[in-house]
Predict the structure of Glycolate oxidase iron-sulfur subunit.
Amino acid sequence: MQHDIPLESSGPNADAMAEAVSTCIRCGFCLSACPTYDVLQRESDSPRGRIILMKEVLEGSMSADEAAPHLDACLGCLACEPACPSGVSYRHLLSPYRSLVRERISVAWPQRLQRWLTAQTLPYPKRFRFAARMGLIGKTFSALVPSVLRPMLDLLPETLPAAKELQSRYAPLGDQVGRVALLAGCAQQVLAPSINEATIHVLRHIGLEVVVPTEQSCCGSLAWHVGDGDRAAKFARNNVRAFSSDSQPIDAIVTNAAGCGSGMQEYGMILRGTDIESQAMALANTVKDVSVVVCEHADRLRLRRPGLVHEGEAVVRVAYHDACHLANAQGVRVQPRELLRRVPDVELVDVAEAHLCCGSAGTYNLDQPETADELGRRKAKAVMATGAPIVVSGNIGCLTQLQTHLNSMATEAHPAPRVMHTMEFLSACLDESPLN
Ligand code: SF4
Ligand code: SF4
């Protein structure tokens, strides 16, 4: 029986998708790296299994509905890419595939409602703040909230930090060494505005002027990763314009959320086949995670022992959690560690099973709560086992997921470690005493 989509009509990313499918030699080396295979122990929930399923749908020998449960269960964490000896670019297959089949998959109405609410609130800080405030009221009266919406409430903190408007420009502190533009992010601005503050603080400290384009929007990666290619393209197009509008050149577009950074680096793919494809690709090449930019100027950092723990301790143990969209999607593993190691009296400790995703993965913890919870518990357990009083990471989704699971595991004897963004930690360790 023939189904759905012949490969040759798979849209502007058809060649890259076909390349990814044909590069897979089915060796299975990726299986041990895949968190969902680890949890679910099914070939169809492994990278190799999913590549075969996507191939069959694209060739018309399987319906998209049949493959959907296994593709929906994929975190998009890209742990399969560095594990693959054949160089399969899974990212060039998964997101374009999801975008292609999105309208052809039957989705139950509660899930449809949840996805619609997420798409209408998370990418818009003002709407999300309003929704989060309503959510906090809803938490108090959760018995009255429809069950489909309760998982969204679980992701909210106990209180919302006060909103902080960003300026459009921040001057460097001391001599200027460059100029960067900051992606302000969307949900992060509401849940943790301190991350942008800390990021700007560190960037200014090393001598960078920071501009924050006022016309910027959500980067679009939340939409892109769930297959809403049209919405992602709308956001990407807006940002290509917003970040190109400044009359003075910038050295880099800086992101401080791993998912946003990897999404912006895929603008060439999101806008492939459009009139601004080459402009989008050029812009994508200037996007860097903040840890990379700070590392490039690391000799300008003046750091002191963190005042975040008890005075009596000789060293401060800090655990670093690799966000998948930083480590796997952007290849950024060394720079955050290098920055943390530079802080006096800091001992960086490894987290076991570092390759395993924490289960956050954009909106995955809403769509696939059981697998997300299992991975979140495992990650929190591994962090607790380090005994470090601080855990640091570079992605708001990971920080929220870690905090939730660490809190649920903490006891009086073993309190939850403090969860911080890498820039929050670094900002708290900057030495700003006057130079003699
Ligand atoms: S490791 Fe690479 S080539 Fe081997 S099965 Fe996995 S994706 Fe295919
Ligand atoms: S992206 Fe992550 S969850 Fe999906 S197949 Fe690859 S390793 Fe597995």
User: Anything to note?
Assistant: Residues 169-296 form a domain with the Glutathione S-transferase Yfyf (Class Pi); Chain A, domain 2 fold (CATH 1.20.1050). The mean pLDDT is 90. The two ends are 79 Å apart (CA to CA). The chain has four domains: 7-104, 109-154, 169-296, 303-428.
